Amino acid sequence: MTALGQGVRRHGGPGRSGPRRPGLPRLTPRRPGLPRLQLRRLRLRRLGLDPIGLRRLGLRGKIAVLLAVGCALVAVAIGLLVHQARLEQVADGARAQALAQLVRVRQVYELTGHVDEDDAEGALDSSAVPEPLRHAALDGRRTTYLDLSSDHPAVWAARPIGGHVLSVRKPLDEEAREMADFDRQLMVSGAGVVALAALGGALLAGRLSRELRTAAATARRISKGELDARIGGPGTAGGRDEVAELGAAVDTMAATLQSRLEAEQRFTADVAHELRTPLTGLHTAAELLPPGRPSELVRDRVRALRTLTEDLLEVARLDAEAERPDLQVRPLGPMVAGIVRRAGEDVGLTGAGEETPVRTDARRLERVLANLISNARRHGGGRVEVSVSGCAVTVRDHGEGFPERLLREGPRRFLTGAAERGQGTGLGLTIALGQAQVIGARVRLRNAPDGGAEAEVRLPAAAGD
């Protein structure tokens, strides 16, 4: 007994030339000078597999998508195997039933001499018998043939008898419906598995994403100067996963950075404090020198050194957050007018009558504005202008403006930023921004459209008192 099945032979091989089949995208040939990575992305886009969309997803989305895709591939592979096994099982059963019917029809034919065509669609020399099955029967073989290509699938069985071909046909419509229901169940089950995998991946990735976002937020807090910020608690030190190792590494880095900065701050404060006593004696001795040009030079350098020492002590106190403001509600315009009057006659003022009440420390605000006016006087050109508007005070010069690096990175100690802005220690702007932070003000540095540098100090309004 043999089994025959339908097949389609495809002619042509790898070397065959001809028109491109519809529906398949043509791969882009490699272009001269095009990077390999860009060429690969271009080909993937042509195939509908744009990796940019996946790269734009967050970590949670990527893990969920990759898990879902992986489970979908596994589900498709298992579904195909199960489908094929079930199909072979149904086909083997149908062939066996067709052969059993063929035996029964043959027995009836041998007893009666005729074939009842209503019995299992039995026939003698039927013209509907597939040609491969007919030739096999005429060759003396008992054979089955599975026809799945038509709208009404069926299985045939045939054998030779007295120079004729005896055949039976068993319809497989019911089996086809069962296979369709079975395939639908496979697809529903596969879709459920993929959905569960995506949900599990999203939950797992959500926890991982939260931990990484916490680490990123803590790192940003550290970069803003909050050196006490830490990622993990006491129970995460023994973590074994990569996220725990990352958190421990960042915490260790923050602790090391904090200890080094604190040591640097202590060193600066100690050096400045130790210099105060000998500088006081040196200043007293310089005042006792006889009048003359050399004595004036000595007194000038002693005053500069003493000012630098006081600035270093002030920076050390600001770094240690030891400054405590004495906040009071006062009108801004008259307070700024007094500061400008004490700063010198070369400073212009507009808005002195502004009566907007602000909550600030007058002594520290004077320190902020005096440093900004001194910086504008030293590095700018022309007359220094101070204007009051609402809760804001703007100090402007007419020089070359602030360097781009200073506007981008902020003031740095002992760095003036550009040669055209003169010489100095670079501590003036640092102290101004530090004292402004103590009193709750914001300092914004910018260059005016028509030239010159502008420093705006915006104070908190008294309405929030």
From TrEMBL:
Q: What is its EC number?
A: 2.7.13.3
Where is this chain's protein located in or outside the cell?
Cell membrane
Q: Which InterPro entries match?
A: HAMP_dom, HATPase_C_sf, HATPase_dom, His_kinase_dom, HisK_dim/P_dom, HisK_dim/P_sf, Sig_transdc_His_kin-like_C, TCS_sensor_his_kinase
* Gene3D superfamilies on file: 1.10.287.130, 6.10.340.10, Histidine kinase-like ATPase, C-terminal domain (3.30.565.10)
Q: Does the record bear Transmembrane helix in its keywords?
A: yes
| Major enzyme class | transferase
An example of a Gene Ontology cellular component annotation for this protein is: plasma membrane
User: Reaction(s) catalyzed by this protein?
Assistant: ATP + protein L-histidine = ADP + protein N-phospho-L-histidine
Q: Where is the Histidine kinase domain?
A: 270-463
Matches recorded under Pfam families: HAMP, HATPase_c, HisKA
Q: Which PROSITE patterns match?
A: HAMP, HIS_KIN
Specify the HAMP domain's residue ranges: 206-262
Annotated CDD domains: HAMP, HisKA
Q: Where is the composition biased (Low complexity)?
A: 20-32
Principal location: membrane
Listed GO MF terms: phosphorelay sensor kinase activity
> Could you tell me the keywords of this UniProt record?
Kinase, Membrane, Phosphoprotein, Transferase, Transmembrane, Transmembrane helix, Two-component regulatory system
Annotated PANTHER family: SENSOR HISTIDINE KINASE TRCS, SENSOR HISTIDINE KINASE YKOH
Name of the protein in its database record: histidine kinase
From which organism does this entry originate? Answer: Streptomyces roseochromogenus subsp. oscitans DS 12.976
